[in-house]
């Protein structure tokens, strides 16, 4: 009688319609999938069929294992078990796609998502049948939601790969003026709307840590002008511990950033714009770094005259 009850569960119209519709969709998608891959039958046909059979067997086993006294009257624990199982199998699937199938040649855009959705569809069929057989139809659709986690490893892996493929940001460098000692400094008339902020500067190219300096300037003066005025004033007062602005190849190129808070991205500071347009406010911290001399002057052309610089934050010493 108990066995008859189990088989009667499979005759519920809802589960029959669900399985038939899902199976039909999977067959159609499989046909489309096969056509999208060049030479699928000769190269991947047997592998695909074997893997599909294996996926359905594993899904069946998960359904059988989930039906035990440990989860009796504990629907939440049972659902968590199914979710963890799907996450583990999904992680294995992500690995197999890259090793066993070699990404199917990686010639079709979006193929990995197509493939994982196809495997999810085929996995749900045996799982839904076995779960309904033992437990009835009441929670079968809820339990089938576990397969969202089957999809998760593929999404995370793809997201990580795309993030790593983003090229580093290229910033425009600012060349320290060679005649900075003769350039006009900040006049008394300009010293209004003042803000006090911190400059993090390494004294020379070999410094391991930034040195921190307090600076004060008007918000409407260009940052580059304020920077070379600060360097001139500091070096005149500290001749034994100057901030180096010139190397073997001439005056350094510089790049500037606002030091971000933990939840913000690094913001580039344009030396040709005034402080307020760069977002420099009271107690802001500006990182001043020398850029590498990556392009020799005589090799520059009209479209390749800006060295690139990749920002890496370092520790800094106490305020000067």
TrEMBL record:
<keyword id="KW-0472">Membrane</keyword>
<dbReference type="InterPro" id="IPR035177">
    <property type="entry name" value="TssN"/>
</dbReference>
<protein>
    <recommendedName>
        <fullName>TssN family type VI secretion system protein</fullName>
    </recommendedName>
</protein>
<feature type="transmembrane region" description="Helical">
    <location>
        <begin position="48"/>
        <end position="67"/>
    </location>
</feature>
<dbReference type="Pfam" id="PF17555">
    <property type="entry name" value="TssN"/>
</dbReference>
<feature type="transmembrane region" description="Helical">
    <location>
        <begin position="113"/>
        <end position="131"/>
    </location>
</feature>
<feature type="transmembrane region" description="Helical">
    <location>
        <begin position="79"/>
        <end position="101"/>
    </location>
</feature>
<feature type="transmembrane region" description="Helical">
    <location>
        <begin position="15"/>
        <end position="33"/>
    </location>
</feature>
<keyword id="KW-0812">Transmembrane</keyword>
<keyword id="KW-1133">Transmembrane helix</keyword>
